Amino acid sequence: MDLNIAHSPAAHCENGTISSLLRYYNINLSEPMIFGLASGIFFVHLPFLKMSGMPVTSFRTFPGVLFKRVTKMLEIKTHTRRFFNPQKAMMELDNLLMVKKIPVGCVVGMYYLPYMPIEYRFHFNGHNICVAGKDEKSGDYIVLDSNALQKVTISPEDLQKVRFAKGGTYPLLGQMYWIESVPKDLPPLKPLILNSIKKTCKNMVCNPSFIKFVGTRGIRYMGERICNWEKSMGARRAQLNLAQVIRMLEEIGTGGAGFRFIYGAFLQEASSVENLDWLNSFSERITQIGDMWREFAYKSSRIYKRREGENYSYNDLGELLFQISEKEDSFFKDLYARVKEIS
Amino acid sequence: MKVKEVPQDLKYLKGAIVRHIDYAVDEDGKYQGVVSDGWTPKNEALEVTLDAVNDECEKILQRIRNKETSPLEYHLVKNLMDVKLLSKYTGISKRTIRKHFTPDAFSELDDEILSKYASALRITVEQLKSIP
Description:
The complex is a heterodimer.
Chain A: H1 13-24, H2 31-37, E1 41-51, E2 54-60, H3 65-73, E3 77-81, H4 86-99, E4 104-108, E5 127-134, E6 141-144, E7 152-154, H5 156-163, E8 176-181, H6 189-205, H7 215-226, H8 229-250, H9 260-270, H10 279-304, H11 314-342
Antiparallel strand pairs in A: 1-2, 3-8, 4-5, 4-8, 5-6, 6-7
Chain B: E1 20-25, E2 31-36, H1 40-65, H2 71-78, H3 83-90, H4 94-99, H5 103-107, H6 111-121, H7 125-129
Antiparallel strand pairs in B: 1-2
Helix pairs in contact in B: 1-2
């Protein structure tokens, strides 16, 4: 039994899963559009919150909120469930798939995913996949993972294991979500786009000034801290921390430059909506900012892997972050002002 | 980033069906998603993390040769697991796992417990008993 949803690779797993679920109901939204509507872009650097001993740096909003935000905006009814009993969790999944013929999104852990290369087997418990069928003979599930180039299959044992992955910030409890019903006509996109842009800008630049870890101020804050990394934690530890930041910035799922390019694609796509063509110039601006983030990644890599003739220091990185912070600050402030003007 | 600048530095994804998608602009400034094999700076970021793991493995190997610890600790670190998680996945207490880090206790383990460890670490029992 296969629900026959066409597979389409995406940069980010949650966007990709949402877009697969929506596609089944003939709603075709691109990945950047989903990401933009859900106000996915963000920045936060939390030196006091440690994950495997390293400060948390994130370029996006919290996992799990994208699905809720997008479906709520589009007036789509959804359901999310968690389980204490793994067998029950698998039975309910089968029930939805086989009896009700509904594709299901599952939050899973990365470590036991059979098709992940060994080097990527980290205990990351926020990966999203779309389960879209089951081979009745072998019992294997047909899965759309947006990071894979084609559909993959997972055995029931493995699926149960990844759905109940241990560790992480909170227990997974076989979390799964699906669409219950879609409205006949989707609401017009224009006000949704403007509202979500407003929300994004608020998240980035309108935080009270005593919260220095988030938004564009957070980028500056990380710049200030990064200058002292070598002194405060020693060369080796500082390199590991820097590598961790670059992995959050560039690793699978970001679309490059910590989601800045996806956001650029969103603004460009939104500019084709009536009277929003001015968004195009903003798309170009965020693309330039994305290129600066790439430069940051490149220079950082020259610190943890030194090459002859190139000598970058943590101060250079800090300086670059100050510039990025300033650019993003004026970008989101200008964008906010423009959107407020017309809505 | 331009479409033709999307990096294709294949390293860790060799042979896997997993790939990156990068968003980049074409000649006319239009955005599109482009499949990427990887990018050296991020491959190296992963390499730095894995190097740290390998360094620790080397130290553990030395301690195994000195009869101070068992192959279990080596495979635990090598497979990016830790005692707390292994305990949760196997149902064996952390204290007992640490006891099995001693060569004597490890050599007396029966197949049932060994296969529990092996399956949690995604290796075979043979691999678990041996070291490189």
